[in-house]
Amino acid sequence: MSDHPTDHATKMTWVPEASCGMARAGHLHTRHGTVPTPTFMPVGTVGTVKGMTMDAVRSTGAGIVLGNTYHLMLRPTADRVQKLGGLHRMMDWPGPILTDSGGFQVMSLGALRKLDEDGVTFRSHIDGSKHRLTPEISTDIQFKLDATITMAFDECPALPATPEVLRKSMEMSMRWAARSREAFVAREGYGQFGIVQGGTERDLREYSTKALTDIGFEGYAIGGLAVGEGQELMFSTLDFTTPMLPQDKARYLMGVGTPDDLLGAVMRGVDMFDCVMPSRAGRTARAYTERGTINLRNARFADDTRTLTPHDDTPVAGRYSRAYLHHLFRANEMLGPMLLTWHNLAYYQRLMRQIRAAIVDGTLDTLAVKLREDWAKGDWTEDEWPMPDLAL
To answer: Where in the chain are the domains?
Structure first.
C-alpha cells in the first residue's frame, strides 16, 4: 500500500446527541451512511449474516454490519472481493461495514499459529494452507474489502492470564496499532479504530489507552473482554476503562453480548457492539424476548398456538405459532433457524432503540430496572398473554 496516501485527516465523526449518566446517544457519520448509537452490529463474518438475506437484515433496523478479515482472506480472498466490487456490493449491503482485523480468530488457532514481533504465521482451519497476517497485511486486506471501519491488528490473549503475559501482549498490540495506522489509507468518510487491550488490569488499560490516543484513531474499541472473565469482571473493567477514552469518539465493545451485557455496557459509556449470540441462538432454537430466553425445542411448545412474543416486529409476528416453530426445529427444517435468527436480530435492534430513546429522554435508569425485572420473570403465562393466539 506504499503507493497510497497516508494522510489520516478523514471525516468519519461521532457526534453526541444526549447523555444519561455515563450512557451516550449520538450519530456515527460515515462514507456509507449515518448510524444512530448505541448500535448493535449483526455479524456477517464471511459476507453473510447466517440464515438472513440482507433485505431481512435491513428490516430489523440494523444500520451497520460486521465482516471478518481472517475468514474473507481465506475465501473467497480479498483480491476476489475487490474484483467483485468490494464487500458492500458483493453482499448487497450499501451501508457501513466494520471488519474485524482477524487478530482474535488467528490467536484462537492455538497450535496452528506462530506469533512473532512482525505478525502471525498460521495454517488455515479449512485446508491447512499456510498464511501470514501482519498489521500491514491485515490493513491492506480491509482496504481491498472496502471496509468503512478498519480495525487495527492486535493480539487478544485468553483470560485468565498473568499481568506479565497481559503486559507483553498489550505492548506488542500497541506497536502493531502504530503500524496499522501507518498502513491505513485515508479516504473521506472512512475510519480506523484502535483496540484497547490489557485484560482486567487498570494500569495496563490506562497505558494502552494513552498509546492509542497518542497515535490517533477515528474510534476506539475495547478488546480482550467477553473471553471468559464473567459479566461482573467485564463491567468492573469497563467502569474504569471507558472514562479514559476520548469523549468525542465512538467506543466499541468487541464481541458482546447478551441483552443484559449490552444494557450494562451502554450504561458504562459504550456506543457500539457486535456478537454472534442472537444469530447462533436462533440456529439452536433459542429465542430472545422481553421475558428472557425461550427454548423452542422444549416439548411444552408442541401445541402452543401463541406467537413468540406479543412485541415482535418481524414477519414472524402474527404469522407463525410457537408450535410451528417447534415443529420446524424437531423436523430439522432450515426455515426454523432462519425465522428465529430474524426474530432475535429484530429483538436486539428493538432493544437498542429502546435504550437509545431512554438516553435521550433521561429515563435510562428506569428502563433498566424494568428490562431486568421482565427478563427475570420468564415466559408469559397464559393469563398474562395480551393477544389472541393463532388457533383457527
So the answer is: 14-274, 281-377
Q: State how far Cα 336 lies from the chain centre.
A: 23
Q: Is 169 marked within a binding site?
A: no
* Longest Cα separation, the chain: 68
User: What does the pLDDT look like over 277-288, one tens digit per residue?
Assistant: 999 999 999 999
Strand 219-222, strand 191-196: pairing: parallel
Residue entry with cell 430472545: 288
Q: Confirm or deny that 82 is annotated as ligand binding.
A: no
Q: Is 33 annotated as a binding residue?
A: no
154 is in an annotated binding site: yes
Give the three-class secondary structure for 232: helix
3-state secondary structure of 24: strand
Distance separating alpha carbons of residues 283 and 277, to the nearest angstrom: 10
pLDDT at 274 over 90: yes
Helices (H), 158-258: 163-183, 202-215, 231-241
Give residue 18's pLDDT.
98
**Catalytic residue flag (residue 92):** no
CATH number given to 14-274:
3.20.20.105
Contact 13, 190 (CB under 8 A): no
Other CB atoms closer than 10 Å to residue 117's CB: what's the count?
8
Task: Compute the average pLDDT of residues 166-178.
Answer: 97
The tens digit of pLDDT for each residue in 14-61 reads 999 999 999 999 999 999 999 999 999 999 999 999 999 999 999 999
361 catalytic, yes or no? Answer: no
- Cβ contacts of residue 115 below 8 Å, gap of 6+? 107, 155
Strands (E), the chain: 13-20, 23-30, 33-37, 39-41, 65-68, 97-100, 113-115, 120-123, 130-133, 149-151, 191-196, 219-222, 250-253, 272-274, 286-289, 292-295
Determine if residue 217 is labeled as part of a ligand binding site. Answer: no
Give the active site residue among 261, 274, 312, 379: 274
Q: What is the pLDDT of residue 7?
A: 42
Question: Looking at residue 177, what is its pLDDT?
Answer: 98
Ligand-binding annotation for 248, yes or no, is no
Q: What is the pLDDT of residue 391?
A: 67
